[in-house]
Amino acid sequence: MLRILVRHGDGGVEKGADLGSVAEVLQDPRATLWVDAEGEPPEALETLGTRFELHPVTVEDFVHQDQRPKIEEFDRYIFLVIHALRAIRRDELETDELHVALMANALLTVHERPLDAAQRVFDRCATDPRVLQNGASFLLYLLSDAVVDGYFPVLDSLGDEIDALEDAVVETPGPARMRRIFEVKRVVVHLRKVVSPQREVYNAVSRRDYPFIDAHTAVYFRDVHDHLVRAFEVIDSYRDLVANTLEAYLASISNRLGQVMKQLTVIATIFMPLSFLTGFFGMNFAAIPFDRPWLLGIVLAMMVGLPVTMLLLFARSGWLTDDQRITSWARLRAWLRRRR
Hints:
Blueprint (H helix, E strand, L loop, with lengths): L1 E6 L5 E3 L6 H6 L4 E7 L3 H10 L4 H8 L6 E4 L4 E12 L2 E11 L3 E6 L4 H12 L8 H14 L1 H21 L3 H32 L8 H67 L11 H24 L12 H11 L1
Helix pairs in contact: 2-3, 4-5, 5-8, 6-7, 6-8, 7-8, 8-9
């Protein structure tokens, strides 16, 4: 789908003009042209490249999307690749590539899927013709600002998920939590790969290194660059938070393992004297008078009394629980009910 917006030299704005008039508009220095190509086939993109006299390398980038954010300068235009954030799906970051060719009085944008930022800016220019008075470079600023502003809702949702994940790994650690930590980590790495080069692109644009950027528009690009710097700092903080969350998960797992080992040690310690008693009194002695009936009662009482006494001592010392010592029968009964 092609969308065309033209502001003629006399101030009139025309929407949906014919591509046949592109050459005429480009020859008028007072005119401003914006052509937005959404989901066009390779043949149509090659035709656009011919009408705008673009370099074959640029046309090839239009056709084969999957480019990193970059800026390239040619004789008649500058070419930019911008990435817009769409959403986060589990361990994947969905982005949209926006390819832009900026000329002295024209802007050509190419993208595969519908782009909310491009639609909003196009509608604004169509309803308010005064926007087009500032030239093609100002259109690029509006488009860039809308794309970068779309970063922050995605970053905010990711930050909320990291906070929730940080609480969850302490309360209920498990294999699913660890998998999610690594999924979020992959998303953060992808975000850095998108934002870092784009930050350099707008740093170059804001320095007025290119002739097609008006002097009064370069100031606006500094604001876009500042937003990208802030987004990059947020992503860096998320990377640290994910690393801390992983450390908290490992510490929680180690804590729980230590608690289990402590409780198993308590159980083994309780049964140790029982093993001694049953082993000692289970031997056959001829000279020692162990055939007394009352002696059997004493041994059985010891086998019952020793574990109970040791359990009470361990409970009062705080060896059975993580948070507090068991100092009463009520707390002991509550603890036993929780263990069932």
